[in-house]
Structures are given as C-alpha cells and as structure tokens.
Write a sequence for this structure.
C-alpha cells in the first residue's frame, strides 16, 4: 500500500485506466472514439475526435455490461462510478483469476455505503461519496492472472453510467489475498432471529469492513445488539463478541448528540461513520441509518473459516430487551485466499427495493 513515505520511490509499476473513453486500458488508446459513434456525438459535433466523445455507457434493462477485463498480475486501486435511478437495480460483480463465481456481488448503492438510495456524503479511507452521486472505492484489489468487473442492470429500462477503473500492472507475490464483498438483506428480521452479516467463508484471510443499512420499525433505542465473529471452528460461542451496535461502529450512548440529547449525531471519519435519514410528516415513517466500520488498522484475521452475526435488540417495558423485527441490509468486506465459496443467491429486484 502506498502512503506519503513511499511516493518518492522509483518503482517498476505501470499505471492504466479503463473508462468509456478506453474500454481496454491499452496504452495510447484513450479518447479514440470516432465522433459519429460516441454517446456525446451531438455535443462534440463541432470539435471532433478527442473532445469528450464517449464519456459514459448505456446499459440496457435486463442486461450485463462488462466494465473491465484485465490480464494480470495487477491491482485495482480506485473505482469511480455514477449510478442513476434505483441504486439497488445495478449489481456490481468482480471475478478473480477465471473463477466462475464472483468474489464481489453487491448492489452498487450498498457497496458504496448508500443502501437507502439517498445521497449522504462519506469521507472515509476506503469509500468516498461526493456530490452529486460520485461513488469512489479505494480498496486495493490485487490479482495474479485476471480481473473481470461487470454491472447488471435489473431495471426494465436502460441506465447511463459514467465510470473509471484505475489499476496498475505489477509483479505480485503468490501469497496475495483477494478482495471479497457480499451483500445480504432481511426484511423484516423474524422475531428473536439473529441477523447474519456473512457466513460460509472458507480460506485464510482477514475481515476488513462492515456496512449496514438499518431501518428501524419501532420507537425507542434500537442498537443494543452485539456483533459476533465466529472464526476457525467456533460453534456455539464466538471468539470476538462486541458490546453493542453503536459500540461496534465506534460510537456510544445511542449515537446521541452529546449537547442536546434530543437527536442522533451523524458523523463520517476515516474508519467509521453514521448516516441518519430522519422521518418527516408525510410518507417516511421510520428512521433509517447507514453505518460503516473499516478494520483497516485492526483487521480480523482468520485461518480457515469465518461467520459474522449481529443481534437486533432494543428496549421494551420494565427494562427488558426487545428483539427487533427491522429492515436490515449489510455488506461484508474481506480478503482471503482462493477459491471463493459460492455466495447465496441475491434476492430478486422487488425484495431488494427500498420502499
């Protein structure tokens, strides 16, 4: 990983970038689209080739677009894209080294910590979301032989996407771990059931992040539940057990504003953050939250297996816990050795929809 102390060093690395102006990332091949073939052919008609002729793509409804196909060894260093419409209608998948199953499978909104289909700025080390719908990912993603990235449009009508995949070609050791991300949603969570963030991970690696889109279906505080990491053969009890939902996401005492004590206090920091979507007087009836926690300085290492769960827990009468039946979605982020265990099937479009 580069930091300020390494930027002054000479290295044997080649920079490349894939976008609609250079679908393959080949050297000297950017901006070569003929004006009559570009999506911006009308706008560039007076200027000609090289003048922003093809800055975006149209993805037909119900189709899959191949965003990148790269021969390694190399490393994805940055992904930027700008989705339109319903962000859960666009599914991001990443395949490593000719695997048949993806190692990343996630709606783009949730992958970039925007699970509620509403813009909220994020300024973190791994994900930045900037005006107006500029989604940025800085997870480093090494691969030895091949990387394929696709976008599936689940909607009936076409969508327009601007994107850029910045990567490097470089020598890598055989001991690299591959980036993974898995989406799940349960709506509503059955009474007294524990929410599963991820299960079935097999291999050696490290867990590096959690994003949750949490829709609360009751009054009063909702975040008493503990997160638990079952690793390397743990069965009934985990090796790592948290003390509360807001504690895991590095907040405290209900995420309350410490001065007024009458509202939630949103925040975005390099490794943790909270987004608050408040109800209004018409149509929106519940609070909705987005929370991220990046284990960048504190990865959770596992040797053979990993399962992560979190309780949905609030308060009821007489000071008793209340198991909640909330709308919960999540993305788990981790690195591991290949092969990737096949993920559970994604829910259909209606189940994914934010309503």
């Amino acid at each position: 990983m580069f930091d300020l102390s390494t930027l002054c060093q000479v290295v044997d690395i080649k920079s490349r970038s894939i976008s609609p102006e250079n679908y393959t990332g080949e050297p000297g091949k950017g901006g070569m689209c003929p004006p009559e073939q570009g999506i911006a052919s009308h706008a560039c008609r007076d200027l000609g080739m090289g003048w922003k002729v093809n800055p975006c793509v149209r993805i037909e409804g119900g189709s899959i677009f191949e965003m990148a196909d790269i021969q390694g060894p190399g490393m994805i260093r940055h992904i930027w894209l700008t989705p339109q419409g319903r962000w859960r209608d666009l599914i991001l998948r990443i395949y490593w080294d000719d695997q048949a199953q993806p190692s990343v499978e996630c709606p783009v909104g949730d992958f970039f910590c925007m699970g509620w289909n509403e813009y909220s700025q994020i300024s973190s080390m791994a994900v930045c979301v900037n005006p107006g719908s500029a989604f940025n990912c800085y997870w480093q993603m090494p691969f030895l032989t091949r990387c394929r990235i696709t976008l599936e449009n689940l909607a009936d009508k076409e969508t327009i996407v601007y994107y850029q995949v910045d990567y490097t070609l470089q020598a890598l050791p055989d001991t690299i771990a591959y980036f993974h991300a898995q989406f799940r949603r349960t709506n509503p969570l059955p009474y007294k059931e524990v929410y599963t963030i991820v299960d079935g991970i097999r291999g050696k690696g490290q867990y590096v992040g959690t994003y949750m889109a949490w829709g609360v279906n009751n009054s009063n505080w909702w975040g008493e539940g503990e997160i638990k990491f079952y690793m390397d053969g743990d069965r009934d009890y985990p090796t790592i057990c948290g003390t509360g939902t807001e504690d895991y996401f590095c907040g405290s005492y209900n995420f309350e504003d410490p001065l007024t004590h009458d509202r939630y206090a949103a925040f975005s920091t390099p490794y943790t953050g909270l987004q608050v979507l408040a109800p209004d007087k018409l149509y929106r009836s519940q609070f909705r939250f987005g929370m991220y926690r990046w284990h960048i300085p504190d990865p959770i290492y596992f040797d053979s297996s990993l399962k992560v769960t979190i309780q949905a827990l609030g308060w009821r009468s007489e000071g008793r816990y209340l198991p909640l039946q909330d709308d919960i979605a999540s993305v788990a982020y981790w690195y591991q050795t290949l092969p990737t265990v096949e993920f559970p099937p994604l829910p259909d479009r209606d189940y994914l929809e934010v309503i």
About this structure: The two ends are 40 Å apart (CA to CA).
